[in-house]
Amino acid sequence: MSIDLEQFKEIFFEESFEGLDAMETCLLQMEGGNDDLEIVNTVFRAAHSIKGGSATFSFTAVASFTHVMEGLLDDMREGNRAADQEVVNILLQSVDLLRELLTTIREGGDVDESEVSDLKEALQVLRGGEGAQAVPEKEVEAASEKRDIEEWEISFSPDEDLLQTGNDPALLFRELAMLGELSLTYDASRLPDFEAMDAELAYLQWKMTLKGCSDKAAIEEIFEWVEDECDLEITAVQPDRRAEDRREGDRRLTSRRTGSRREKDPQKSKAAAASSSIRVGTDRIDTLIDLVGELVITQSMLSQLGEDFSMDKLENLKTGLGQLSRNSRQLQESVMSVRMQPISFAFNRFPRMVHDLSQKLGKIVRLETTGEDTEMDKTVMEKINDPLVHLVRNSMDHGLETPEERRAAGKPEEGVVHLSASHQGGNIVVEITDDGRGLNRDKILSKAIERGLVQEEDDIPDQQIYNLVFLAGFSTADSLSDVSGRGVGMDVVRRNIESLGGSVVVRSTPGKGSIFTITLPLTLAILDGQLINIKGQTMVLPLGSIIESLIVDKTQLNAMAGESEVYSLRDEYIPIIRLSEVFDLSDQQDDLRTALLVVVESGQDKVCFVVDDLLAQQQVVIKSMESNFCKVGGVSGATILGDGNVSLIIDVNDTIRLAKELGMEHLQAQQEQGNAKYKQARKMLEVTG
Amino acid sequence: MAKVLIVDDMASMRKMVAFTLESVGHEVTSAEDGDVALEIGKKDSFDLVITDVNMPNMDGITLTKSLRELAAFKFTPILLLTTEAGKDKKMEGKAAGATGWLVKPFDPDKLLSTIKRVLG
Question: If pLDDT is split at 50, 70 and 90, which confidence band does A196 have?
C-alpha cells in the first residue's frame, strides 16, 4: 500500500523554521559566552530533526548538509570543540543557508548546489576533514549486496535474555520464511529441567536452511536487532568470488549519482501555493466554540419567536436581538484574538541582525527588548517587520557611535538599542530607542531648507525638525553605506506605517540618543467608528481618536496668528480644522457658530474638526482604498454602511497633515493634486454606491 | 490491532508515524518527549513503543531504560527511531533495553513491514 505523506510537509517546514530560529537564538547565546551544554544540545537536536525530516521528504541537499553540520555540533557536544567566534559564525551562516534552502524547496524552486557545497566544505575543513562521510553511504552499501546465491545456511543461538528486549525468535522466523523456503531444526540441548526453567529466558537454538533467496543483506537485516544478543552464522551454499569487486563498483556508481541529484518537487505549484498558517492556543478555540454555541441558542430562540409573532412579544424580541448583538460582538472579538500573536515573533529576528551588523559596523551594541508578550494582529506584524528592521539598522548605523567616539564622549563603549512594545488605549506602541549621538538638528534643518521643504525664516520647534527626516528624499548621512541611508528609507518607513493606519514620530536629544515611536492600530479589519455628517456626506471618524464632541461656545472662538482659528477649551488653545475645506466638499465657509466640534488627537497633535452632525456610533469593516482604488490623502479606507452606502473613513493623522499643508502656501499645488484625487475617489464612490 | 505509543519532539514525524499506523488500523497515542511518554506509560500499557532518540527533557535512551523498569513494559517491543547510521548509538539503545531501531528517512512502507517483526 502506498501512504501519501505530502500533507505533513507543511508541518515539517514550520517546525524546521522554528528549529532554525531556536538554533539562532542559542548560537547567539553561545557567542555571549554561555557554554551551557543544554544550549549545544538544543542546537544539535534542531539540526538533527531537520536532517531526519528532510531525508524523509527526500530533500537530499538539506539532509546531507545538516549531516555535516551535525558532525561539528556533535564535536561540540562531546566537548572536543569550543564555541569560538569562527564556529559560531559558520553555524550562523549554516542556519541562514538552511532557511534559504527550505524556503526555496517550500516554494518549489531549485536548490543552488554550489552554495551548499561551499559551506559544507567550510564546515568539513573546520572539523579537520575527518568523518566527512555522506549520509546515504550506509544504505548504499547494504543495498548493493546482491549475489547469485540461492541458498543459505543459518545458525542462530540467542543469548538467554533475548526476550527481555522485546524480540521474539518466532517472529524473526516468520519474517525469514517470507524471503524464501525456510526449513528449520531446533536444538534443545540448553533447555534445563522443568523446575529450573525460567519462562522469561530463551534456551533454544536453531539451524535453518533458506532456499530461493539471493539477498544476504535482507537476511542480515532480519537479525539486525539481535546480532549482539546471539551467535549468528549465515553461510552461503555457493560462494561468489567476484563479490568484493562488485561491491566497490556499485558504491562508486551510486554515490556519484546521489552527488549530482537535484531536488525536484513533482508538485511544485501545489507547494508554491502553500498558504500561510497560524498557531492558535486551544483555549482560544474553545472560547470560540462556546460563543458559537451561545449564538446558536440565541438564533433558535429568535426563530421560535418569529414563528408566531405577536406584538405582545415585542419585549422578548428586543431582548433576543440584544443578545444576538452581544453574541456577535463577543464572537468577533474572539475571532480577532485568534489572529493575535506576541510581538516576540517580530522581535526575535533582531538579536541576529544586531550581531551581524555590529560586526560589520565595528560597533559594540547590546540589544534589549521589553514587552515581547504584547499581542498584535498577524497582518500588522508581517507588515511592520520591514519598517522595524529599517529603524533598527538606522539606529545602529547613524545613531550609535563607534566605541572610540563613545569613549571620547564619556559614554560606555557598548551602545544600547532598545525595542519595546506596549498597549496604549486602542493602539500598540513600538519604540526603538538608542543611546547614541542623537539626530543632528542643524544638518536636518539646512537640508530641509536646501530641499525647499521649509523656509529659512520659519520658526520650527526642534522636535518638529527631527520629524522632517520622514519626508521624501531625505538622508543626512554624509556618505551612503550599504547598511542604511539611501535617502528613501525613512520616507518609506513612514509610508508603510501610515498604510497600516499607524504613525511614526522621532524624539531626539543631542548626545543622548533618539526614540522612534511607532503607533499602530490593534487590528486592521474592524474599527469602532463615529459616523459624522459633513455637507451631506457621511464619513467615519475612528472612535479611538475622539476625545470629546461639543457645541460651539462662540465666546471661546479665537483667530490667532492671522488666518488660523483656534478654540479655547479649558486653558488650551486647539486649532480648528474645517473638514469640508480639507476635503473640498463645499465652497461655502462653515458658520462656526452653529457647527459641532469634535476634538480629536493623533500623536502629539490635538485639533478640533468641524462637522455638521454626529450620527451613530458603530463598528465598521475597513475596506482598503489602495487595493480597490488608490491612496487618497486624509482617508484611511472605506466602509459599507448598514443602508448599503459607501462611506470614507477619515485618517485623522493625515487629515491634520493635509490641513497643515493647506495652511502652507508653498504646498498649495500638492494639495490641489490631493483634492483632485479625492474628488475622483468621491465620484467613483458615487457611481458604485 | 495493536496499541502503539509514539514519542518524538517533531510534530511532523509524530504525525507521519501515527498516520501510517492508523491507516492500517492501529491505535496510536503520541507524546512529545520522554517525560510525557513515561507518564503515559505509568498509566497505560502498549503493544509497541516507537521513540525518537534525540529529544529535550528525557531522551529516547533514558525513556527506554525507564520503561523497561515498569512491569507492563518488561517485554514490550521498543523501537528507536534514529538517523544514526553508525552502530554505537544503536548499541547504546540496545543496552538500554531497546528491541531494535527504525532508521530515518522515515518510510511508511518500511515502517509497516518492520513492525511485523515485533507485532507478528
Answer: confident
Residue A271 pLDDT > 60: no
What are the two backbone dihedrals, phi and then psi, of residue B106, each rounded to the nearest 5 degrees?
-70, 130
Cell 551594541 locates to A365
Cis ω before B108 (30° cut-off from 0):
no
Residue A197 above 60 pLDDT? yes
CA distances to A197, A377, A495 from A639, rounded to whole Å, are: 85, 20, 22
Q: Residue A6's closest chain B neighbor by CA?
A: B16
Whether B3 and B95 have beta carbons less than 8 Å apart is answered as no
CB distance from B20 to chain A under 8 Å?
Answer: yes
Residue type, A135: V
Assign domain A526-688 to its CATH superfamily: CheA-289, Domain 4 (2.40.50.180)
Backbone angles phi, psi at B32, to 5 degrees: -95, -5
- pLDDT in the model for residue A51: 87
Q: What is the ipTM for the molecules in this complex?
A: 0.84
Of chain B residues 75-114, which have a CB less than 8 A from chain A?
75-78, 81, 83, 85, 91, 94, 97-101, 103-109, 112
pLDDT (mean) for A113-133: 73
For the residues A46-53, what does the mean pLDDT come to?
Answer: 87
- CA B58, CA A469: separation in Å to the nearest integer? 54
Cβ–Cβ of A52/B120 closer than 8 Å?
Answer: no
Quick one: average pLDDT of B21-45?
A: 91
Q: Which chain B residue's Cα is nearest to A167?
A: B99
CA of A171 vs chain B CAs: smallest distance (Å): 5
**CATH, domain A141-239+253-257, list 2.20.25, 3.30.70, 3.30.470, 3.30.450:** 3.30.70
Is B72 an interface residue toward A (CB < 8 Å)?
Answer: no
Residues of A in contact with B55 (CB under 8 A): 45
pLDDT range class, residue B78, cuts 50, 70, 90: very high
Mean pLDDT of all residues belonging to chain A:
78
Name the CATH superfamily, with its identifier, for domain A342-521: Histidine kinase-like ATPase, C-terminal domain (3.30.565.10)
**pLDDT at position B37:** 93
Exposure of A669 in the CB half-sphere (CA atoms within 13 A): 1
For β-strands A340-342 and A375-377, DSSP reports them as: antiparallel
Which residues in chain A (20-59) have CB-CB distances under 8 A to chain B? Answer: 41-42, 44-45, 48-49, 51-53, 55-58
Mutant choice from A48, A51, A70 vs B, greatest count of B C-beta within 10 A: A48
Q: Which three cell numbers stand for residue B35?
A: 517525560
What is the CATH T-level fold of the domain B3-119, as seen in this structure? Rossmann fold (3.40.50)
